[in-house]
Amino acid sequence: NAGVTQTPKFQVLKTGQSMTLQCAQDMNHNSMYWYRQDPGMGLRLIYYSASEGTTDKGEVPNGYNVSRLNKREFSLRLESAAPSQTSVYFCASRGTAGGISPLHFGNGTRLTVT
Amino acid sequence: EDKVVQSPLSLVVHEGDTVTLNCSYEVTNFRSLLWYKQEKKAPTFLFMLTSSGIEKKSGRLSSILDKKELSSILNITATQTGDSAIYLCAVYNNNDMRFGAGTRLTVKP
User: Fold this and answer.
1) CA–CA dist B37, B43 (Å, integer)
2) Can you say whether the dihedral through the CA atoms of B5, B10, B12, B15 is positive or negative?
3) Using an 8 Å Cβ cutoff, are B23 and B30 in contact?
4) DSSP string across B23-64
5) Cβ–Cβ < 8 Å for B71, B22
6) Cα–chain-centroid distance for residue A38?
7) If you ran DSSP here, which 8-state letter would residue B2 be given?
């Protein structure tokens, strides 16, 4: 199984440019998440989707938008990139049937905004 | 506001040493606490703890939750260079999962 797949793996943007980070999971999970990871700050939640058709803000949603396209796919959009958005972005998913379960992570997208 | 705090932030030990990593939390609607290991890419799951006082163990790694003290510890005995990684603690409430800043463990030969 592929698990959680993120594209692209690397991206360089200029300030003000826009882009969409793609995430897809093949584990039939209900919940999907976007995190960013900066040195010394662990993983911070940007947005999550508890189920298809719903999205909610996390700790650091400003400057981002998300779309839960279907059960498999959850995309993260930067409308006008800023240098403060330079980070490593992780998508994750979690099954919710039967109670609590751990997150499964993609391999990350390293984004640099100049 | 929900908060997860890990200590120490960084730790350097020699092979064979035993280490204890700490995680404390203030979270509304606590459901469970999870530990992850992160080497170069994605975090990988180690343990999930829901009940107080029950130790989870996997080889040289073990973890326990204290719900009265709102904390957990992760122990690694007889450390190896392959244990070098960032160890992340996360707490799950009703909807989302919040992470601490992580402990960077370096094990020297």
Assistant:
1) 5
2) positive
3) no
4) EEEE-TT--EEEEEEESSSS-EEEEEE-STTPPEEETTEEEE
5) yes
6) 14
7) -
Phi, psi of B78 (to 5 degrees): 45, 55
* Angstrom distance (rounded) from CA A16 to CA A19: 10
Residues in chain B: 109
Whether the CB-CB separation of A20 and A75 falls below 8 Å is answered with yes
DSSP β-bridge partners for residue B108: B14
pLDDT tier at A103 (50, 70, 90 boundaries)?
very high
The answer to whether the beta carbons of residues B65 and B52 sit under 8 Å apart is yes
Question: In the prediction, which pLDDT does A33 show?
Answer: 95
Cβ-based contacts of B88 with chain A (< 8 Å): 42-43
Is A43 within 8 Å of B95 when comparing Cβ atoms?
A: no
Q: What residues of chain B lie within 8 A of the CB of A110, using their CB?
A: none
Nearest neighbour of A108 by CB, restricted to B34, B42, B44: B42
Q: What percentage of chain B reaches a pLDDT higher than 90?
A: 77
Nearest by CB to residue A100, choosing from B32, B44, B100, is B32
The sign of the torsion formed by the CA atoms of A84, B85, A8, A23 equals: negative
Amino acid identity, residue B106?
Answer: T
